């Protein structure tokens, strides 16, 4: 595999939250003075207790929400968003689901077809173009969802716990595929997960959030090289780093509970 850059080493910011607090209309205080910077070619995971505001961070970066105080800054480039549910249209084929964003943005049909073939190949779904979502496994449906997001060539890719509902083996395989994709596509990723091993395996950096209202309580660099072999998970270095993240997470839960 050809790596065209050094993951995590660029100083160029692609997205920032600056001292952001978020209080919803019903008074729920979701985020408290949170600052996050995501740089080019970084893949950052966000872990934290349930309800601490992880999805809110993604929604702010996507522009779906406006902060109560503070600033959200992005480059304005295309954003890809992958949700926990694949959210596919059941009556459309795989190819027709994947080309939907291209249709909605007015990409010429021939370009969309070519690009769909390319992104489906990248997620290992060549040959399934004519299948409907109901004929696919959960992991395959999630691959379609990722392929659909790739269609618009996002520079900023936001993942809201996309593999949480999958079995362990499928999840690990998709982690490996996503990490390969990260090396060949020019996006910066912010990945929400409840799984510490998943966060460490995928990331150049892991951010740990406190319980609500969410704050960043730890910023752990992941120094492992790329590409990442599946066996990395069984090394003492991996276990030590996962343990650091888990400890920070446990401390974060205990401080506020
Ligand atoms: N539109 C909204 N109005 C009111 N409260 C909201 C709204 N959206 C989210 N919240 C609340 O804000 C808090 C943070 O929600 P968020 O979904 O960001 O947490 P999360 O860390 O992603 O949770 P989980 O890990 O369980 O998915 C929660 O208490 C949630 O109930």
TrEMBL record:
PROSITE patterns xref list: ABC_TRANSPORTER_1, ABC_TRANSPORTER_2
SMART domains with a match to the protein in the record: AAA
InterPro entries referenced in this protein's UniProt entry, alphabetically: AAA+_ATPase (IPR003593), ABC_transporter-like_ATP-bd (IPR003439), ABC_transporter-like_CS (IPR017871), ABC_transporter_ATP-bind (IPR050166), P-loop_NTPase (IPR027417)
Pfam families: ABC_tran
Entry's Gene Ontology molecular function annotations: ATP binding; ATP hydrolysis activity
Residues in ABC transporter domain copies: 15-236
CDD domains, per database record: ABC_NrtD_SsuB_transporters
Superkingdom of this protein's organism: Bacteria
Keywords attached to this entry: ATP-binding, Nucleotide-binding, Transport
Protein name: ABC transporter ATP-binding protein
Organism: Frankia nepalensis
Organism lineage string: Bacteria, Bacillati, Actinomycetota, Actinomycetes, Frankiales
């Amino acid at each position: 595999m050809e790596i065209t850059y050094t993951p995590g080493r660029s100083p160029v910011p692609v997205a920032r939250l600056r001292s952001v607090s978020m209080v919803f209309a019903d008074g729920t205080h979701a985020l408290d003075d949170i600052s996050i910077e995501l740089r080019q070619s970084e893949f950052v995971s966000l872990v934290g207790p349930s309800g601490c505001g992880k999805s809110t961070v993604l929604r702010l970066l996507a522009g779906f929400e406006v902060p109560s105080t503070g600033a959200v800054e992005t480059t304005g480039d295309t954003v890809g968003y992958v949700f926990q549910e694949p959210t596919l249209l059941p009556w459309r084929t795989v190819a027709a689901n994947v080309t939907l964003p291209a249709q909605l943005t007015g990409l010429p049909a021939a370009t969309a077809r070519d690009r769909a073939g390319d992104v489906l190949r990248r997620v290992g779904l060549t040959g399934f173009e004519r299948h409907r979502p109901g004929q696919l496994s959960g992991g395959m449906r999630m691959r379609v969802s990722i392929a659909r997001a790739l269609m618009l060539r996002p520079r900023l890719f936001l993942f809201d716990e996309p593999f949480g509902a999958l079995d362990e083996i499928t999840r690990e395989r998709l982690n490996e595929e996503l990490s390969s994709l990260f090396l060949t596509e020019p996006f910066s990723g912010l990945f929400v997960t409840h799984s510490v091993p998943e966060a460490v395996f995928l990331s150049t950096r892991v951010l740990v959030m406190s319980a609500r209202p969410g704050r960043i309580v730890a910023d752990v660099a992941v120094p492992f090289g790329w590409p990442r072999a599946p066996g990395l998970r069984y090394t003492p270095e991996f276990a030590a780093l996962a343990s650091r993240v888990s400890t920070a997470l446990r401390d974060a839960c205990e401080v506020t509970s």
